[in-house]
Design brief:
Chain A: One of its GO terms (molecular function) is ATP binding. Chain A: It comes from Paracoccus fontiphilus. Chain A: InterPro entries: AAA+_ATPase, ABC_carbohydrate_import_ATPase, ABC_transporter-like_ATP-bd, P-loop_NTPase. The complex is a heterodimer of chains A (257) and B (351). Chain A contains ten helices and ten strands. Chain A has 257 residues and is an alpha/beta fold. Chain A is globular. Chain A starts with 5 loop residues before the first strand and ends with a helix. The model of chain A has no long low-confidence stretch (mean pLDDT 88). Helices cover 68% and strands 2% of the residues of chain B. Chain B contains 14 helices and two strands. Classes of the chains: A alpha/beta (257), B mainly alpha (351). At the A-B interface, helix 2 and helix 5 of A face helix 9 and helix 10 of B.
């Protein structure tokens, strides 16, 4: 069997007396969509933050491509190729699509202008942004220079996903990408997620929306009480199974034995 | 975004990737979208209208002499407004700019006259002190997480006190400067430009704005300043080191205050520890009238330049019309309120 691309074992994170992660495990295989579900307070976000560099676990190990990694900041995780689309999207509403795509990793011009005067290569950044948005079929965006705040919720999500897909060479983590969207826009974002997977980039999808999870996920990681309870195949289990495991109403067969 | 042709920027038709949802909008909606896209148009329109109005009221208004006088009068506050703009773009405010300016002018004067340092050295020391005051403000805001308003309210008083201490509340007279440190009065010197008399202080102000415009629009630093002001959390998640950006903004603002100090010596002709007492508030006025949002991240750096000119035009126009000085304040007050109201309205677009 293939090796997991992103792998974590025995992650522990304590905040005072509260244990947010209690020896949590995690595996993400190449090219898959792994959904992470769990009740509120189950420690999903701590796990995801540990993988995206926003939180540093007290114990345990994380491996990317088999190599041990420890991210001191989200920036380091990004540099390793792990991009996260936060629930808040982390877009600057007043800045343009292009500015947002390149936030924190702008392209400078060649030669003296770029080197000595730090001049940005705006044509290159605009062209790149336009290309990335078109690749993901976000054709309804008319002008790459238009501010984020003039876009609809789905379009904003689309820009955030496009940004992650453009730079996330290894893993893309999506935190509740459809939570704030209507039916039609959710549809577009799910298509977008499938589209990104078809490019070979594995995706970690955190969501509360069971129909969405069951529609796109290849495997479902169920988190409960700070650790991974089990991983299920959405084709072999129903949504009510998943909810029952997640809330503790039922124990998965593999564990019950 | 807009289904109406854009009058200012000619757009490459191939850029239109696909049609956007068209929905009919009223004229007011169109105006809102237009101003959202070009926030500097508000002050530009106000400036043009006030020029026309005062030109009609007083025939002398449009003389080259009067117009260049307005420029000279706004040069110092305009330069300070450039510093203020940077801080306000990060959703902060700097109440200490005026005090820093006066204190630095005292330091430049004292070092040159009383301590006999070569003037270029005292100017460099002054610029370094300006940077240090910015670093202090920046450290208090980014490290201790104090609100910029309170931080700079505090440092305003501190710098004012230091200014009185250093100067002994004594003015360095114009003649003394002429004899011992004429370079300090450089920015008060006049030159002729097509009938209009300008000072180098005006040129300095324009250069400061031009450099800031470049830095804000053409460099990564500028984009990050806007991002941090717009939504610091988002900027930080997007990988920007927000504290470093904020710190740099305060330091650059401090250096610009020091440049304004040099310029102010030329404008006043002497080094006076009691001059420009309201410069901090006047700089905020210019920024606000210039259409930079007090909530950060929005507005053009050229707005405050126009904002400063509007205040200058109003003061000059009303004076030429023989109106009591109190009405200049009255008019400025309304300009501020209208400017902020328009800003609020424009920002409602985001939905």
């Amino acid at each position: 069997m293939t090796e997991p691309l992103l792998f974590a074992r025995n992650l522990v994170k304590r905040y005072g007396r509260v244990t947010a992660m209690d020896h949590a495990d995690f595996d993400l295989y190449p090219g898959e969509i792994l959904a992470v579900i769990g009740d509120n307070g189950a420690g999903k976000s701590s796990l995801i933050k540990a993988l995206s560099g926003a939180v540093q676990p007290d114990e345990g190990e994380i491996r990317l491509d088999g190599k041990p990694v420890s991210f001191a900041s989200p920036l380091e995780a990004r540099q390793a190729g792990i991009e996260t689309v936060y629930q808040t999207l982390a877009l600057s509403p007043a800045l343009s699509i292009s500015d947002n795509m390149f936030m924190g990793r702008e392209i400078r011009r060649q030669g003296v202008l770029g080197k000595w005067f730090g001049m940005l290569d705006k044509p290159a950044m605009d062209a790149f942004s336009r290309q990335k948005l078109s690749e993901l079929g976000l054709m309804t965006i008319q002008n790459i220079g238009q501010p984020i705040e003039t876009l609809s919720g789905g379009q904003r999500q689309g820009v955030a996903v496009a940004r992650a897909a453009a730079f996330g060479s290894r893993v893309i983590i999506l935190d509740e990408p459809t939570a704030a969207l209507g039916v039609k826009e959710s549809r577009r974002v799910l298509d977008l997620i499938l589209d990104v997977r078809s490019r070979g980039i594995p995706i970690v999808l955190i969501s509360h929306n069971m129909p969405h999870v069951f529609e796109v996920a290849d495997r479902i990681h169920i988190h409960r009480l700070g650790r991974r309870l089990c991983v299920i195949n959405p084709k072999e289990h129903t949504m009510s199974d998943a909810v029952a495991y997640m809330t503790g109403a039922r124990v998965p067969e593999a564990l019950a034995a | 975004m807009s289904d109406t042709p854009d009058p200012v920027v000619a757009r490459n038709p191939s850029e239109t990737v696909a049609s956007f949802e068209h929905h009919s909008r009223g004229a007011l909606d169109w105006v809102q979208h237009f101003l959202h896209r070009y926030p500097t148009m508000v002050p530009v329109i106000v400036l043009v209208l006030s020029l026309i109005a005062f030109g009609l009221i007083s025939p002398n208004f449009f003389s080259a002499f009067n117009l260049s006088l307005i420029l000279q009068q706004v040069a110092v506050v305009g330069t300070l407004a450039a510093a203020q703009s940077l801080v306000i773009l990060t959703a902060g405010i700097d109440l200490s700019v005026g005090a820093v300016m006066v204190m630095v002018s005292v330091i430049m004067g004292k070092l040159s006259v009383d301590f006999g340092l070569p003037v270029p050295i005292s100017i460099l020391v002054g610029l370094a002190v300006g940077a240090a005051t910015g670093a202090l403000n920046g450290a208090l805001v980014t490290r201790l997480k104090l609100p910029p308003f309170i931080t700079t309210l505090g440092t305003w008083n501190i710098f004012l006190a230091l200014n009185y201490y250093l100067s002994n509340r004594e003015t360095i007279r114009s003649q003394t400067l002429d004899a011992e440190a004429p370079l300090l009065k450089l920015f008060g010197e006049r030159f002729n430009l097509g009938g209009a008399v300008l000072t180098y202080g005006v040129v300095l102000m324009l250069i400061v704005f031009a450099v800031l415009w470049y830095a804000l629009y053409q460099t990564a630093w500028g984009r990050r300043v806007y991002a941090v002001g717009d939504d610091p959390e988002a900027a930080s998640l997007a990988g920007i080191q927000t504290r470093r950006v904020l710190m740099s903004v305060y330091v650059v603002a401090g250096v610009i205050c020091a440049l304004a100090a040099w310029s102010s010596i030329g404008r006043v002709g002497s080094v006076s520890p009691t001059s420009f007492f309201e410069a901090n508030l006047e700089s905020i006025t210019a920024v606000v009238i210039g259409g930079i949002s007090l909530f950060g991240g929005r507005g053009s750096i050229l707005g405050p330049l126009i904002g400063a000119l509007i205040v200058g035009v109003f003061n000059s126009g009303l004076r030429l019309a023989g109106v009591d000085v109190l009405w200049q304040l009255f008019a400025t007050g309304w300009l501020i309120i209208v400017a902020v109201a328009i800003d609020q309205w424009i920002r409602k677009i985001s939905s």
